[in-house]
Design brief:
The chain folds into 2 domains: 12-180, Rossmann fold; 184-387, Dehydroquinate synthase-like, alpha domain (Up-down Bundle), CATH 1.20.1090. Helix content is 47%, strand content 12%. It has 15 helices and 10 strands. The protein has helices at 23-28, 42-46, 48-58, 75-87, 99-111, 120-123, 186-204, 212-234, 239-251, 267-278, 282-297, 303-314, 322-340, 357-364, 378-387, and strands at residues 12-15, 33-38, 62-66, 92-97, 134-138, 150-155, 160-165, 173-176, 370-371, 375-376. The chain has a 6-stranded parallel sheet with strand order 1-8-5-4-2-3, sandwiched between helices. A two-stranded antiparallel ribbon has the order 6-7. Helix 12 (303-314) crosses helix 13. The longest helix has 23 residues, at 212-234. The relative contact order is 0.11. Bound molecules: 5,6-dihydroxy-NADP and zinc ion. Residues 143, 195, 198-199, 268, 282 line the site of zinc ion.
Length: 389
């Protein structure tokens, strides 16, 4: 069945090497007072910080700053940013960094417009009614936060990592310069690549037949990552590889490939518990989980998309029995994650044992079931965690 859908991607993208001179002009459309946000300092080492600050200053805008946003960003950073926005009457926020910085900045923009604690957006699922405008300069390809309305925030006190979103939080303008990802190390390049593949896989494995055109777009995006991720790891300054990864990251989650699909995601909620409890890198958790989730849910009734995935993405021989082809596709995906991208393949290697699995599984299912490609009970989720040990 092909569902009705609305297609609307409102982010203006400046893609390429020579675009940053437009930053000041773009920010000034939203006002005079800019809050620049960033992470632990990679933008200072790379020189991007100086370039951004020069652009803002030469446009005669007032600059405020908040650095130190951690990977798996914490609610405390959001609180701090929202407070600065209120105190300094900020007009627009500029996130310069990866998904963590952009995500936290989105929620600062929402927190600036309310008089309650921003954690309520997560704990009570309070709807965003108003937000300050957010712009971004992306430095790490993977999450797609530069072109979507989502943001995932961690509360270390409660071991919760929760993603929420709103159309109001979609960045107004994003600067996507692949050269800004030259300094991303091989490990983070691999994790970002898995993340974008997972965003596609979560949509590709859908319970209803749908627009075939989208399936082929997704297969093309997956093949792009499979080709260019190892290249970017080996040659960090390969512009073609970095550019292909960057644009794939945005298109994997900007709403286009999911047009009309209404099913929920599976691996992401399961992974968010791993990051919440053990503060591991999101893409690494997804790499360990995804092939196990595939093995767990595959059955005679749903073999078709697995077959299609194996043949069209990994070139497995279509003439073999369908179930064999499906399993070979999962094996090729594992090989790609664990051998080509050189990521750890088990939770054990990360020092994680089974002691929190039951609690994590219940949280992933929010006390109910996960209605993804195949419905999973907390027991199913726990079984999947165990397969990852
Ligand atoms: O903090 P700095 O110093 O900048 O260093 C970061 C960080 O240590 C470093 N880095 C980033 N750009 C770099 C760089 N190092 C050198 N050169 C550069 N150009 O990389 C490390 C990881 O950065 P982070 O922003 O945490 O990575 P990523 O972009 O993968 O973001 C991960 C977060 O996004 C969430 C994840 O759950 C996780 O919290 N997600 C957000 C989504 C969304 N908004 O739609 C969807 C995703 O599924 C995901 O859940
Ligand atoms: Zn993700």
């Amino acid at each position: 069945m092909i569902n009705d859908f609305i297609y609307e991607i409102p982010t203006k993208v400046y893609f390429g090497k020579n675009q940053l001179h437009r930053l000041g002009q773009e920010l000034s459309h939203f006002g005079q007072r800019v809050l620049l946000t960033y992470g632990g300092g990679s933008i200072k080492t790379s020189g991007l910080y100086d370039n951004v600050v020069n652009e803002i200053r030469s446009s005669k805008l007032d600059l405020f700053e908040l650095g130190g946003i951690a990977p798996n960003p914490r609610i405390d950073s959001v609180r701090e940013g929202a407070a600065i926005c209120k105190r300094e009457n900020i007009d627009v926020l500029l996130a310069v960094g990866g998904g963590s910085t952009i995500d936290a900045t989105k929620w600062m923009a929402a927190g600036a417009c309310v008089d309650f604690d921003p954690w309520k957006f997560f704990s009570d699922n309070v709807r965003v009614e108003k937000a300050l405008p957010v712009c971004s300069v992306l430095t790490l390809s993977g999450t797609g936060s530069e072109m979507d309305g989502g943001g995932v925030i961690t509360n270390p006190q409660t071991h919760e990592k929760i993603g929420r979103g709103s159309k109001l939080l979609v960045p107004k303008v994003s600067f996507l310069d692949p050269t800004n990802t030259y300094t991303v190390n091989a490990y983070q390049t691999a994790c970002g690549s898995v993340d974008m593949m997972s965003h596609i896989i979560e949509v590709y494995f859908h319970p209803e037949r749908d627009l075939e055109m989208l399936d082929h777009v997704m297969e093309g995006l997956l093949k792009t990552v499979i080709k260019f991720a190892p290249m970017a790891m080996e040659e960090p300054e390969n512009y073609e590889a970095r550019a292909n990864l960057m644009w794939t990251s945005s298109w994997a989650i900007n709403g286009f490939i999911s047009s009309g699909k209404r099913h929920e995601w599976s691996c992401h909620p399961i992974e968010h518990e791993l990051s919440a409890f053990y503060d591991i890198t999101h893409g690494l958790g997804l790499a360990i989980l995804t092939p196990r989730w595939m093995e767990y849910v595959l059955d005679e009734d749903n073999v078709e998309p697995f077959y299609q995935f194996a043949v069209n993405v990994f070139g497995v021989d279509p003439k073999l029995p369908k179930m064999d082809v499906a399993k070979e596709g999962i094996k090729r995906l594992s090989d790609f994650f664990f051998h080509t991208l050189k990521l750890s393949s088990t939770l054990h290697e990360l020092g994680i044992d089974d002691k929190n699995f039951e609690v994590m599984a219940n949280k992933a299912c929010q006390g109910n079931v996960l209605k993804g490609f195949k419905t999973l009970t907390p027991q199913d989720v726990e079984n999947i965690y165990r397969m990852c040990l």
